[in-house]
Amino acid sequence: MSLITGRYGLSYTAATPEAVAAFDDTVSSYLGFGRDIGDRLKGVFGHDPDMPMAHIAKGYFFKLFGSAVMAERAKKALAKAETLAAENQITPRETAHLDALRAWCAEDLDGATAAWESVLIEHPKDAFALRLAHFNHFYDGEGRLMRDSVARVLPEWAEGDPDLGFVLGMYAFGLEEAGDYAAAERFGRRAVEINPADAWSVHAVAHVMEMQGRHGEGIRWVAGLEDSWATTNNFRFHLYWHRALYHLERYEFDQVFALYDRHVACDIESDMYLDVCNAASLLWRLELYGVGVGKRWSDLAEVSLKHVEDHELIFVVMHYLMVLLKSGEREAAGKLSTHLRSYADSGVSQGRVTAACGLATATAMEALVDGDAGGAVAALYPVRSEMYRMGGSHAQRDVWEEMLVDAAVRTDPVLARALLAERTAAKPLNAWGWSKYADVLEATSTSDKSATARARVKDLLAAV
Q: Do residues 245 and 398 touch, judged by C-beta distance below 8 A?
């Protein structure tokens, strides 16, 4: 083993330069949602089966699956990496990466993120650490930290750096989640100019358009770049989800179902958690719009049944629970809820999230499926300001806000009126929100304002 310099001047403990070059390419594939990430990592091991950072990366990739089964495999990769680290004099940067994996395997997400951020202070062009920190900030619901994490290193990146576009795209998404839509769109578009196949950057701009209610423009943006981003791994289905969401807000249900069937739910059997999140949240939204979804919930059940003891990411677990409840798998749903109640006492990062808002969210969804809208409001309303802690984006978490609004409309019109005043102010181009607002204004004897709200719905849909 020797110290070999790779891309951006980063040093690795490795046997050959070819292993380091292959590792750099693996990181770039990960940044770009490549379909060949696993094959590229195998290529690293082909050049050097004992490269410590490669075994750390193997552990990272297992953890990124967000499942209990893969978490156990990550622990095995950690054990191998620790053995190699003890046998070789690895660098402080590699040691910090090892610390990050150790913390992540111990379910200390905050500790893992802190380790990556410490790497970035000394090595601002460690794109692997940057993207992993970005991932954990995302699932902490910390848009500001996503933004600032990239802002700290951005001045060190230059035109011509192979991974610059990916860095700009991360910055764009952090800006969007922090509410700076103009800057987010500017950086996102620049990233896409550099690399149109950069799905994360296309996605960052798509989020801006969703948050600003630019549905037609969003459809054109996502569809216009499809030939490029459709070459990526399963993350491409999330971009189809965004396109479907735009059509949903325009009440174009045939287009929503076409996108759902052809793309969003077309690879559920591969058991990638984001696919289930996309599909489940879209089906629940369709039902909130009053549209039947046929047997599609049952089509998602087989995969979700594999995850009744998962807790890696509570945001994801909530979507498995959606499926189990809606597909009639009540015994499995009960097991999952019982597991969550136990996990909420664990004290680890996602256990604290479960206690803060996960249990209440689960209770609310169970109540809704049982026809108890009042129980759903009672569970969800007190924790709505804590929901960000489950992570995901503003657009993704909005499904729970829609659940709360819809339940309140049916059981507490005065509360619903207040919630919808807030919603229509934040999302003035959302026809569904205005339609619900018209209903509660009429129910609370403000028919003149109700007529105005209904006219707003008509105008929005006429403009489609």
A: no
How many degrees, rounded to 5, is the angle at CA 428 between CA 422 and CA 434? 75
Output the CATH code of domain 1-140. 1.25.40
Cα-atom radius of gyration of the chain, to the nearest Å? Answer: 23
- Strand-pair partners of 2: 14
- Alpha helix locations (H) across 159-198? 164-177, 181-194
pLDDT over 90 for what percent of the chain?
98
Angle, helices 92-105 vs 68-87, to 10°: value is 150
* DSSP H/E element including 220: helix 215-224
- Whether 377 contacts 408, CB under 8 Å: yes
So what's the pLDDT on residue 241?
Answer: 98
Looking at the DSSP assignment, which residues form a beta bridge with residue 14?
2
Mean per-residue pLDDT, 101-108: 97
Residues 6/18, Cβ–Cβ less than 8 Å: no
Helix (H) or strand (E) holding 241: helix 236-249
- Read off the DSSP letter of residue 126: -
Residue 448, Cα to own-chain centre: how many angstroms?
A: 41
- Report yes or no: 127 and 166 within 8 Å, Cβ to Cβ: yes
Look up the pTM and report it.
Answer: 0.95
